[in-house]
Design brief:
38% of the residues lie in helices and 18% in strands. The chain has 373 residues and is α/β, with parallel strands linked by helices.
Length: 373
């Protein structure tokens, strides 16, 4: 379908938070989720595709074993997830079966995106399910995820998934009307930002990471991080009050009061993986001149602009590029950390003299470099 800006939304990722899932215990919660599933299948019947990213496993498991609050210890969270994931998928299977739909469970961690081959396998599985008319229901694999490999919240996971599958839009259903320019609980003058084309420092300060519910995680800070990923990947993102609105065509068409983050660019697949999927193995610190060159002139990173390399990484690894304390880029290196520290500050023509070889002129070629800031 098209919206007022003539953008076509055919493949949409829909993120549903724990508040909606645990709300199934109330009549209003059941009605809201039933309406949403009905709208999802109305959207699919119009020859579109929908992917669901569903929170709720830990919350459902914690409730089932009588916990009043979300567990804070890792074994407690993993045990609750193992219990709750069964009920979560039963719920989605039941809701979608009412519309003749079939669902498939996909559990992911960051590890599944670190290796490009694994990432492509996961992507191809999701795309195959869509081609079969099956709705993928994706959740973080909380049962095995540790702090090192988890996404931390399903807002981020949904944005990464939207980026990886080439989605046109990401809709995050929550219990607020959108992104406010201040905390509406404390500031009566705070208003919803209806359209956002750039995430500013003022918006970051306005965002809150308050969970709002003892059985859920995430807040506006996590949604802002998700928007950053989505916008950089060519995906428009919507923050919508799912208890008020569920019609996907109305949301995507612009007739619903919500916040829309509008993407102005489209990052190609390999760069999306570098920016938001690959494991970062180290850090390169560059001077201001190099930062300007790669940021404003889209040049490759040369040895002359490098101040320091850290992390013990190897050729072909992904590293973060910093100028002072700001991460400005990520990229795939042509030289190891040890070699970079030998050639840093020198011209490319001096590489052979310093290393007794000269594989490349660049430390990171511009085709393997993603500008973040």
């Amino acid at each position: 379908m098209k919206n007022s800006q003539n953008r076509i939304y055919k493949r949409v990722v829909i993120k549903i938070g724990s508040g909606f899932i645990t709300g199934q215990t109330s009549d209003s919660g059941t009605c809201a989720l039933n309406r949403l599933v009905e709208e999802i299948y109305s959207f699919i019947r119009a020859r579109n595709e929908a992917i669901i990213v569903s929170s709720g496993a830990i919350a459902l498991g914690a409730t089932k074993i009588g916990l009043k609050k979300r567990p804070v210890d890792l074994p407690g969270k993993q045990a609750s997830a193992a219990i709750g994931q069964v009920d979560l998928m039963k719920m989605w299977e039941r809701l979608c079966a009412k519309h003749g739909g079939i669902v498939a469970q996909i559990l992911l961690t960051k590890h599944d995106f670190y290796d490009r081959e694994k990432y492509l396998n996961a992507r191809n599985t999701i795309l195959k399910l869509l081609s079969l008319g099956v709705v993928p229901v994706i959740n973080e694999n909380d049962t095995v995820a540790t702090e090192e490999i988890n996404f931390g919240d399903n807002d981020t996971l949904s944005a990464v998934v939207a980026s990886k599958v080439g989605a046109d839009a990401l809709i995050i259903f929550t219990d607020v009307d959108g992104f406010y320019n201040g905390d509406p609980r404390k500031n009566r003058d705070a208003v919803i930002m209806r359209e956002v084309r750039e995430i500013t420092n003022e918006m970051k300060r306005a965002a809150t990471s308050s969970a709002g519910c003892s059985l859920s995680i995430g807040g506006m800070a996590s949604k802002l991080s998700a928007a950053k990923i989505a916008m950089a990947s060519g995906v428009d993102m919507f923050i919508v009050n799912g208890k008020k609105y569920s019609c996907l065509s109305s949301i995507l068409g612009g007739s619903v009061k919500c916040t829309k983050f509008i993407s102005e660019q489209k990052m190609e697949g390999k760069k999306r993986w570098i920016a938001f999927g690959a494991r970062v193995s180290g850090k390169i610190l560059v001077d201001a001149g190099a930062a300007r060159a790669i940021g404003k002139m889209s040049t490759s990173l040369l040895p002359s602009g490098v101040l320091l390399a850290e992390g013990g990484f190897h050729r072909g690894d992904i590293v973060s590029v910093f100028c002072a304390d700001t991460e400005i880029a990520k990229g795939m290196v042509f030289y190891s950390c040890e070699d970079i520290n030998k050639i840093k500050g020198h011209k490319s023509s001096e590489i052979h003299k310093l290393l007794c070889r000269r594989d490349y002129d660049e430390i990171i070629h511009k085709d393997n470099l993603v500008i973040l800031s």
